[in-house]
Amino acid sequence: MGEVTLAQVSSNYLDVLQEIGNIGAGNAMTALSQMMNCKVDMKVPQVRLLEFRDVGSLVGGEEQIMLAVMLGVEGDITGSMMFMLERQSAKHLINKIMMGMGDPETEDFSEMELSAMKEVGNIITGAYLNSLATLTNMSIYPTPPELCLDMAGAILSVPAIQFGVYGDNILLIQSQFFDELEVDGFFILVPDIESYGKILSALGMPI
Amino acid sequence: MSELIKVGMADLKTCVAPDSVITLGLGSCVGVAVVDPSTKIGGLAHVMLPDSTAIKGSTNIAKFADTGVLELVKQMEALGANKSRMVAKIAGGANMFKFEGANPNIMNVGNRNVAAVKDVLKKLNIKLLAEDTGLNYGRTVTFFPENGEFHIKSVGKPDKII
Question: Among residues B29, B69, B88, B126, which one is catalytic?
Answer without folding.
Answer: B29
